[in-house]
Amino acid sequence: MSTVTLQHNRIELALHQLRPATGEGHPLLLLHGLGECTPTSVPHGVESWQGSIWGLDFTGHGESTIPVGGGYSAEVLLGDVDAAINHLGTVTLVGRGLGGYVALLAAGARVDAVHGAVITDGPGLTGGSYESSVPQSARLMDQGQIPDPYALHELSRDVRAADYALDFVQYSVANSELAEPINVSALYRPTWLAEVAAAPGVASLPLGDALNLYR
Amino acid sequence: MGITCSPLRTLRPLRSSLTQVESPRTFPGAVAPQRHYRVDADGVGIAVNEWGDERDPVLVMVHGGADFSRTFDVFAPLFAAAGWRVVAWDHRGHGDSDHTHLYSFEADLRDATRVLDAVAPRRPVAVLGHSKGGSILTSLAEAQPFRFRSFINLDGIPYRRPGPDLPEYQRADALNTEITGWLEHRRRSATGSRKPGTIEELARRRAQMNPRLSTEWLEYLVTVGAREDADGWRWKLDPSMRMGGFGPWKPEYGLFRLAGLGVPFLGVLVGADEPMGWGTKSHQVEKWIPRNGRLEYFDDLGHFIHIEQPKMVADMALEFLGAPA
Questions:
Q1: CA distance B267 to B311
Q2: Is this prediction's ipTM beyond 0.90?
Q3: For B179, nearest residue in chain A (alpha carbons)
């Protein structure tokens, strides 16, 4: 596994190449779940991808910078993915949990560079809701650890509003060259994801079948 | 499949200095803080300014977005003279507080609690917030009501997002335009710095956000909110921060919290539209004002009402607050 360091604002991001290309095709970029990091080998389910396979450690995770004093949001992680896209060019995204939500945001924000986004089960998929999101300010005693406790605290409560998520779906579907640029492979579907899965232009195929569409 | 999650890069705050130099400009009624110090907010240095006798009861003032605590240089002394110890701080990335890696509303809330812990631990205090400062306090009042004695909110009650109402098919386009602009900014912001200029040039730039405030005041603000480098003055605001924003947050979230306030509340709204204001009108929010609260509306004043009419607003607030003790 080789690693490239990318700059996102003042954060240094670790972008790992898990495997070089074995054939034709653009890169596959894996986005881990909340509290995880990039695996050290190609995970089950994506081995057949012929382009190169990469994984990005989000801010505060894996080998990427731990920020001082928190301040996380899914939108910050979208900026992380944008830095990776800027390096890799067109990619297909596969996200676990929180990484799946961020993949959806990236599919809407960078339509020309995201050739399909697959949302799979994983930590941080549910996120928070306004009703459960009374602001907290407890002092976190284990600062400086990996993953950053502020990332775990803040991103587990980051609000997932269905109408907001659907704006990204709508923009992606309207502007992508793909008929179904977003695929929900997750078995568990919190409210926001159920609405995304039911939207026009969103497929619900198993991971392997979805990757066949996006090659 | 193996996993390694080893720590590699932990950074310290990017700028940590407390600059308090004598301003080369004066403004009628403006008084520099009597005390200034830093509070550690989980590694982020927060610059705190105080006016008044430190034995007096605490009145917390929270500034708005892109502002800084020295914008209270005229307003705060009016309360200090009435027997209040006014405590105000610069939000992270603003004024003399540290520039850091990430910014969020929740991080601002957490920083606020660190300052409150330092000046009035587990003790209710009077609070006043302007604009975003009012929104911060509204959220904090729900999360930690034990910190509040009474609450004044100056034009910090958002009702809807600024900008035109768009049909659904245009909303996604507008969101994408905003996001791509933000992402492009993020690609450049690691090495960005604010544009230098003379005091007069920085004041003219700020006038675009503060069109109702006098040139004399804006030039004074430059001298307390910007720093003088070899090539000119620069606003201290972290250049990686950007006006506007997007996300799942909705203005009505704050309204729902407002209704549940349990302390005496004074809300102030204004009629003059300004770039930095929410444009909220009384009839839009009055049903959400708590039973022990009241709403005042000034049709001919703007978002920075406490700078336009400091004496009038201070008199109203002091009457609401009652005796400091």
A1: 17
A2: yes
A3: A109
